[in-house]
Amino acid sequence: MFGIKLNPRNDVFFSILEQAAAQTVEAARLLCDLVNDFTDVEVKLQRLVDAEKKADTINHQMVQQLSKTFITPIDREDLHTLAFAIDDIVDNIEAAGTTMVLCKVKHTTPYAIKMANVVLDAAAKLNTLVPNLRTMRDVRQQYIAIHDLENQGDALWQQAFASLFEDGSNPLEVIKWKEIYEMMEESIDSIERVAEIIEEVIQKNG
User: Is position 3 within any domain?
Assistant: First the structure.
């Protein structure tokens, strides 16, 4: 009568989260494309921006679905938190690529390439973790794998940051790359945050 769904087994929410997780992989892949071959950067950046817009659309679907569903398969607040946390991943990845292009860096660095690859690896692992919400299967091992990648990202960031202050470093380049490296590290950190939320949700509902 009012268009409100009462079926607690409605799994459309899990489908939306899985779509969102897949979009983090796509964004990470596009960032790798950019840093591994720093040519046609405007075209590659536009693809990344488009991926971020698609992630926003997926997130909006979650908001709409929550507004018209009375009983959800897991807590409404958890679904909302997860959707926005996953969207943050793509936002951070897109911000790293955008800053790289807007700052007009002439080339990428070995550290940028390594960090982008860690982002992609972590996003891929998250993509395999999210479907466990349907069954509330234990994700501890998957979480540990993502945590290990986050540690790798931290180590790379420290190395990259230290490299900026080597003798002869251009102060302007230091400012540019410090910002880029921090955004790439935040991309990895945001993936771990989602994994932590999923682990907590499964522990609560399992």
Answer: no
Residues with Cβ within 8 Å of 71's Cβ and at least 6 positions away in sequence, in order, are: 5, 6, 7, 8, 10
For residue 111, the SS3 value is: helix
Q: Residue 131: which CATH number?
A: 1.20.58.220
Q: Are 36 and 117 a contacting pair, CB within 8 Å?
A: no
What distance in Å separates the CA atoms of residue 113 and residue 125, rounded to the nearest whole number? 19
Q: How far is CA 163 from the centre of its chain?
A: 26
- Name the residue with higher pLDDT: 101 or 3: 101
Task: For residue 161, count other CB atoms closer than 10 A to its CB.
Answer: 16
Q: Which residues contact 28 (CB under 8 A, 6 or more apart)?
A: 93, 116, 119, 120, 122, 123, 124, 187
pTM: 0.93
Quick one: tokens of 26?
A: 């796509």
In a domain, 2, yes or no: no
Kindly indicate the confidence band of residue 169, based on its pLDDT and cuts at 50, 70 and 90: confident
Number of domains forming the structure of the chain: 1
- Residue 5 inside a domain? The answer is no
For 65-119, the pLDDT digits (tens) are 999 988 899 999 999 999 999 999 999 999 999 999 999 999 999 999 999 999 9
Q: Would you state the torsion angle of the CA atoms of residues 180, 183, 185, 190, taken in this order, to the nearest 10 degrees?
A: -170
pLDDT at site 149: 98
Residue 1 in domain: no
Residues facing 141 on adjacent strands: none
